Amino acid sequence: MAEKKEIEVINIREIAKKIRANKKSFYLPLGIVFVLSCIYIFSLPRFYATDAKLAPETEGSMSGGTLGSIASSFGIDLGDMQTSDAINPLLYPDLMEDNAFVMNLSSIEVETMERDLKTNYFEYLKKHQKKPWWTGIINAILPSSKPKTIPGAESEFNPYILSEKDNNIIKKIQGNISLSVDKKTGVITINVKDQDPRVCKILADSVTVRLRDFITHYRTNKARADVEYYTQLVDSAQKEYKTAYQLYGRASDSNLNVVSESYKQKLYDLENNMNLKYQSYSMLMTQLQAARTKVQERTPAFTLLKGASIPLRPAGPKRVIFVLGMMFLAFFVKAFWMVRKDLHLTF
Fold it and tell me: Residue 80 in contact with residue 167, Cβ under 8 Å?
């Protein structure tokens, strides 16, 4: 038992002394790691990052406020029409997983910091991205394979049927743009990174606008459908009322001196029909006004808590930290290999 405890004792001072005595043996591996890590990290294109914060109005009571009062004047209680969003705000970041939404972002017009390039984001990612020097060598050595295509991807554009090239662009956009939602405050943060600082700001501003439009369109979708439906009914009722009014007017004007009971009955029926058409038209107009009010009530207000700014310094890669980290790792590996016997380890 005593022998086992003696074996497990590690003399830290002796290990440190051994490392100091052999410090010259570290020069070559550390020098090689330093050079290689510098070549690698300085070959990677630098990128910039910026963000914007958007606070959408939370859905409250539909019966309160001025719009609720206006609707009640038409005999409509918006409180009874209150509904909740089917999409939880916490799911908004998942929009970046939808090809249709992401491809919509590819049409954003971008401009570089030097203002020497102005194109859409799709072409910018496809043709104007800096790459490490070794990618050219790899592409020259390895045989280039023909990109895979899916039947129907070339004939008519469909965001859910993409060629391999277009799908790669989708992946790049998803890697450069991300959304996050604070669970407590509901604030949406738009994070953007890119090789050009001006492109970062343009993308953050554009994504903010398009996200706001999406949320507004989603929340008012049902109400706008109701407005369209009631508009069609009102147009139809208005035509029917005008027709009934014209029939009644012509009958009254052409038979002013006629006093027969049959004519009076016919005129009475025409008048009743006209009044019924007017009542129907009037009721539908009331419902249409209420539906329009509902659209405005459902339209959320947005507060831009933080606007995107042009980043002044690159966000990465962290060159100094990477080189120091690789140097530390190389030192640790070399030292570990040197004192492995003192640690009672064999390989």
Answer: no
9: helix, coil or strand?
coil
Count Cβ atoms within 10 A of the Cβ of residue 313 and give its class: 0-12 exposed, 13-18 middle, 19 or more buried: exposed
Q: Which of 83, 71, 69 is nearest to 298 (CA)?
A: 83
Closest by alpha carbon to 299, among 38, 19, 137, 65?
Answer: 65
Provide the token pair at 111. 């401009």
Q: Is the pLDDT of residue 50 over 90?
A: yes
Given this model, what pLDDT does residue 80 score? Answer: 44
Q: Dig out the tokens for 158 from the structure.
A: 């469909």
Judge contact between 324 and 35, C-beta under 8 A.
Answer: no
- pLDDT tens, position by position, 77-124: 444 444 455 567 778 888 899 999 999 999 999 999 998 999 999 999
The model's pTM is: 0.76
pLDDT 10s digits, 212-263: 999 899 889 989 999 999 999 999 999 999 999 888 888 777 665 555 667 7
Minimal CA–CA distance to 108: which of 97, 118, 96? 118
Asked if residues 240 and 210 have their Cβ atoms less than 8 Å apart, the reply is: no
Name every residue whose Cβ is closer than 8 Å to that of residue 220 and which is 6 or more positions away in sequence.
295, 298, 299
Beta bridge partners of 302: 56
Length of the chain: 347
Report DSSP letters for 221-283, one per residue: HHHHHHHHHHHHHHHHHHHHHHHHHHHHHHHHHHTTT---HHHHHHHHHHHHHHHHHHHHHHH
* Distance, first Cα to last Cα, the chain: 25
